[in-house]
Design brief:
Largest sheet: none
Number of helices: 4
Radius of gyration: 17 Å
Mean pLDDT: 76
Structural class: mainly alpha
Distance between the termini: 45 Å
C-alpha cells in the first residue's frame, strides 16, 4: 500500500494550477501601475514589509487562515470553492 502522506500538499492537477497562474499573470500584465493611487501603493509597500518581517510559521498560519476564510465565504455564498478562480474569466 502506497503512503500518500507526502502528497497532501501537492495539487491534484498541475494543469489547473498552471492555468490559474497563467491567468493571474495575464491579468497583472494588463494593469497600468501608473494609474494606481499613491495611497494604495504605500499600503502595498507597508504590507509587503510587514510580511517580510514575519516568521515562516506566521506566514504559513496566515496563508492557511486566508484560504479557510475564502473557502468559508465561497461556501456561504453557495459557490463551489474550485470555481472561484474560474469566475474571473467571465469578467
Amino acid at each position: 500500500m502506497e503512503n500518500n502522506a507526502n502528497n497532501l500538499n501537492q495539487p491534484a492537477d498541475n494543469a489547473d494550477v498552471n492555468n490559474i497562474l497563467g491567468n493571474a499573470t495575464s491579468y497583472l500584465k494588463n494593469i497600468d501601475f501608473n494609474k494606481v493611487p499613491d495611497q494604495l501603493k504605500q499600503f502595498g509597500t507597508m504590507a509587503a514589509s510587514k510580511v517580510k518581517g514575519m516568521s515562516t510559521t506566521q506566514k504559513v498560519v496566515g496563508g492557511a487562515l486566508l484560504v479557510l476564510g475564502a473557502a468559508y465565504l465561497s461556501k456561504r455564498s453557495g459557490m463551489n470553492f474550485r470555481n472561484v478562480a474560474h469566475m474571473s474569466r467571465t469578467y
